[in-house]
Structures
1.
Amino acid sequence: MYKALADNPSSPEELAKKTGTDSRCMREWLAAQAADGYIRHDAASVRFWMTEEQAYALAGQAGLAFIKDAFARWRNTRLFPR
C-alpha cells in the first residue's frame, strides 16, 4: 500500500480501488498512518500522500533504508533474545 501511495496523492477510495482493498479499511489504515506520522494528510481535500523521505523509507527498496528490510536484518542478527 505504501508503494501505491508513493506514486501520487490519493483519496481512500482511489487507493482502495488501486490496491483492491475495502475502502472502509483503507480509510482507517490511512487515518492511523497519518496520525502516526508515516504519511501526510490534507483534511480539506481528503487526500493522503508521502514525502520523498517517507516514500524512500517505506516504499522504496534502497538497501538498509527500506524499513521492512532493516527490521528483517535486525531480527536475523539475533543480538537480542526473543
Note: The chain has five helices and two strands.
2.
Amino acid sequence: MLIRIIYTLLLALASPILLFGLYKSKPNKPKFGKRWKEHFGFTPKLKATERPIWIHAISVGESIAAIPLIKALKKQDPAQPILVTTTTSTGAEQIAKLGDLVEHRYMPIDFAFAVKGFLKATQPKQMLIIETELWPNTLNEVHKADIPIIVVNARLSEKSCNNYVKVQPLFNLLIPCLDKVLCQTESDAERFERLGVEKNKLFVTGSIKFDIQISEEVKEKGKALRTELGHNRPVWIAASTHKGEDEQVLEAHKQILESQPNALLILVPRHPERFDSVFELCQKQGFNTVRRTSQTAVTESTQVYLGDTMGEMLTLIGAADVCFMGGSLAGDKVGGHNVLEPAALGVPIVTGPSYFNFEEIVATMTKEEIIDIAHNDQEVAVCITSYTSNPKKLVDMRSKLKAFTSKRCGALTSTIQKVNSDNGK
C-alpha cells in the first residue's frame, strides 16, 4: 500500500511534464481538442449496450499491431463490441481508420479516480493490453472490478527486464492483477518469470506481427507507386526514422548516388510532426526532394521521395527494392521498429545495431542470414548497393523472406484461443 502511495505521489509530480509532452502542438500532429478530458476519466459512454472487449494500444505501433487481432475478434463474433484506447492522438488516428468496427476512447492517466471514471462509463468485460503497457493503478482498479487482464503479444527485452528489476517492489503490485501473459518468445516468458510472474500465467503464442495480412489492394498500390517512381532505377526506403538518424540515412544516400546516380530514397520519418523539418533537411543538403502529399510528379532527377503520410508504410515499402528499418541507428533509446513488415512483403532488410525491441526476431533472421546489420552510414550504403546492384541476390532474398514469414504464421490463432478461454467462449 505504501509503495502505491509513493508511486502515485511521484506520478502526480511528474504528470505536468508528461501532459505537456502529450498535448504540445506540433506540425502534422492530430489535436486532442475537447477530448483531452478523457485522460482524466471524463469518458463518454459507449454506443453499444453489451459489455465490450477493451483493447489498449498506447500509440501508432501498438495500434497497427492490434488491427489483425481486432479484425479476427470481429470476424468470429460481429456483434461483440470492441473498445480501443490509445494514449496518443497519432494512435487514435490509426484506430479511426477501422471506422465503425470499434469505438475509440483515450486512455485515462494512471490515477485511481481517472480509471474509475473510465470503467464506470465503459463497463468492459475483458482487458487486452498490446505488448507491455503496464500501469500499477490502472491494473489494480481493473482487477478490483473483476475484469480479466491479458497481456497480448507481450515482449520484454533484457534491457526492460533489468529496468523493472530496479523497481521490483512496484512490479510486484502488478503481478496479482495479471490473468495471462501471452509472450512472443520463450525468452520473453523467461524474463517475465524472472520478475516473479507465475509460470501458469505465462504462455508462448508467438508474435501476432508475423500474421501480417497484406491485402491485394496494398500490394497493388505498392506496384502502382513503383511504376510512378520508375522501374529502371534502384529504389530503397528508410522506414520510421528518428531524429539524428535522417542525417545518417542521407549521408548513405550520397554514397549510393556515387555508384548509382539514378537511385531514389523513400524517406519516411516515424513521427508526423517531423515531416516539415526533414523536408527542410533534405533541401538544405541539396537533394532534389518531392513530398508525397505535394502530388508533384517524380522524375529521373528526383533523389528523395518524402513519405509524409500516415498509414501507408506497407505501400511505400512495397514500392522499394530494399528497406532500411529506422529506430536502429538512433542510439540505444529506441530499439528499432518492425522488421517483419518488409519481410512479409519480401523486401530485403537492413537494420542498425540497436534493435532490442525485436531482439529475438533479428537474432533468428541473422542466424538464417536474411537480414543485414549496418553500424553506420557507410555500412548502410554498402548493404543497400549489394542488393540494388545484384538482381539475382535481390530475387533470392525475396524468396527466402517470404518463406520465413509464411512458416511462422499462426500466432493470431493461438492468441484468439487464449483470449476466448478467458471471456467465456
Note: The domain at 216-406 is CATH 3.40.50.2000 (Rossmann fold).
3.
Amino acid sequence: MESDEQAEQFDRLFRSTFRRVMAYCLRRTSETAAHDAVSEVYAVAWRRRKHVPGDEHEAALWLLGVARKVLANQARGQRRWARLLRRVAEQPRPAVTAEGRDLGEAMASLSSTDQELLRLAYWDDLPPADIAAVLGISVGAVSTRLHRARERLRSRLATPNDNETHETKVKQHADR
C-alpha cells in the first residue's frame, strides 16, 4: 500500500506544480526543449521522491532547482552537439583509398545488413558479443557475417567503377 500512497502523493505534487515548472522552463528555452526538461524534472523527482520536501511550496522550489540543473545539462549537450557539427563540417572529404575510391560510396553500395554490421563494429566500436546482442544473433554468426561484409567492402574499394575501367582501357590502348 505504501507505493499506492507514494504514487498518490506524487500525483498531487505533479498537479500542483506542473504549470509553474513548465512556465519556468518555457521562459528559459524552446517549447520542445521545455517539454523534455519538464519530463526529466519529474523523472528525477520520482527517482528521488524521498528527498522531495513535504511542504508544497518547498517541493515546488526543489523542483525548480532540479529544472535549473536539467536545463543546464540540456544547454551543455546542445553546445557539445554544435561543436561536434562544426568539427564534422571542418573535416576533409570522406576517406579515399589509394585507388581513389571513396569509402562512403563503397559503403553505400553494400546491403543495409552489411552496412549495419560494419557500422556497429567500426563506428560504434562494439565487440562481437555486443553486436550479437544488438542484432539478436549468435556471436558466431556475427563473426561470419562481419568477415563477409569486410570482404565485400574490400572488393568494392579495390574494384574501380565502370568509367575508370573504360578510361584505363582507352589509355592503355592509346599508349600502344
Note: The chain has a mean pLDDT of 84.
